[in-house]
UniProtKB/TrEMBL annotation:
Full protein name: Alpha/beta hydrolase family protein
Domain of life: Archaea
Source species of the chain: Candidatus Nitrosocosmicus oleophilus
Pfam families reported in the protein's UniProt record: DUF900
Keyword Transmembrane (UniProt): yes
Database matches in InterPro entries: AB_hydrolase_fold, DUF900_hydrolase
Transmembrane segments: 12-34
Length: 379
């Protein structure tokens, strides 16, 4: 049954100032501003972890989750996993924008939001490194929870003799949740004995290291930037054996992920390592091409990401950009899932890379947008 390296610049204080303020600026009112309701299909693990320490709280275990409004085994479902630093209303906005971009491409499927404790507490004393590290560990630990939902869903559909394809989409640090979930599925006897498979995975702007998709554990353990971190797994075998089609959509100009002299984020937090979502799988200091999963595919989608300074349409310039800045296509890390119209944020001005996701789902050659402006000025 089918269901279906390296840069040594270091952290900048302004990064943590953004992280500390972003969750405060956005209030519960966003739920109504963006038309959110809590009737949307939802997998919910918020409140399972201490946001100050990253430790699991009493009353929870490695696989528990809450779910509501889950559809009863339609032909296919999608699960969207958001990234770092988002409280619940902000996560709802990302989910809703992804859904709108799917609708803009005339693709309708039940899209489930996976909402997790990503809004960890950061400290000025270490420029936010502790908050980032706690978020990474919480993301990893949410993998078994997502995996358990997938198993439970597959079992339910199997018991009703229904086939329902499972499609996973992540943005940013949500990629770590997906990779960890695939590792859990790979180790689960029930899942494997039933020959279940995840139909597709799309990582958008993946904030994970570019060697982690390898099948060779030495690519992980021999990388000095992974010392004393939670990165001890080569996920390539799980990708190859538990997923039908696996896609990595990246942008070399991604303002959160790219190595640069000023306002560098991901490489600074990862001791010079580069992100999978910035330039694809590892080429330097040596290529991991021969260790990639056979079903691994990647595409440069920088020309799909509009040069917008306010992707969520909240009338605030997105982080790392400032008033008067000239930005290019592919710059905005928040634009992979689309960009809202600032004057009417219930509408989109761009669908980001979601059209590529839809083309992949339809198994047709992706049609890359050609009509986007090359640059824009932040006002």
């Amino acid at each position: 049954m089918v269901f279906m390296k390296k840069n040594t610049n270091y952290r900048f204080l302004i990064v943590i100032i953004f992280i500390l303020t972003s969750s405060i600026v956005v209030s519960y009112a966003l739920s109504s501003v963006w038309g959110q309701t809590y009737s949307n299909p939802l997998i919910f693990t918020r409140g399972h972890y201490d946001l100050d320490t990253g430790q699991m709280l009493q009353g929870h275990n490695s696989t528990d989750y809450d779910a509501s409004n889950i559809p009863n085994c339609p032909p296919e479902i999608g699960v969207f996993i958001h990234g770092w630093g988002l409280n619940e209303p902000m996560a709802n906005e990302r989910y809703n924008r992804t859904w709108m971009s799917l609708q803009a491409n005339n693709y309708s499927l039940p899209l489930i939001s996976f909402s997790w404790d990503s809004n960890t507490t950061s400290s000025l004393s270490d420029s936010g490194l502790s908050g980032w590290n706690h978020a990474k560990s919480i993301a990893r630990d949410n993998g078994p929870k997502l995996a358990q939902f997938i198993i439970d869903y597959a079992d339910k559909c199997n018991s009703e003799n229904k086939e329902s394809k499972i499609r996973l989409i992540s943005h940013s640090l949500g990629a770590r949740v997906i990779l960890s979930s695939l590792d859990s599925l790979h180790k689960n006897d029930s899942w494997n004995n039933n020959n279940y498979t995840v139909t597709s995975v799309h990582l958008l702007g993946a904030a994970v290291d570019n060697e982690e998709v390898s099948k060779n554990i030495l690519d992980i353990t021999n990388d000095w930037t992974n010392l004393w971190t939670e990165k001890t797994i080569a996920y390539g075998n799980a990708i190859e054996q538990e997923v039908t089609d696996f896609y990595n959509l990246y942008s070399p100009n991604d303002n959160y992920l790219e190595p640069k002299a000023l306002m560098q984020i991901y490489p600074s937090y990862e001791y010079g390592d580069w992100a999978l979502g910035q330039n694809g799988y590892q080429i330097l200091p040596y290529p991991i091409t021969t260790s990639l999963p056979q079903n691994y595919k990647e595409s440069n989608v920088e020309n799909e990401i509009a040069p917008t300074c306010d992707a969520d349409g909240d009338k605030n310039i997105d982080f790392t950009f400032s008033k008067g800045d000239i930005i290019n296509r592919g710059d905005n890390h928040l634009g992979y899932i689309g960009s809202r119209n600032v004057t009417d944020n219930t509408k989109l001005i761009d669908d980001g890379a979601i059209n590529i996701v839809v083309d992949n789902w339809k198994n047709v050659k992706p049609e890359f947008d050609q009509g986007l402006a090359l640059t824009a000025r932040c006002n």
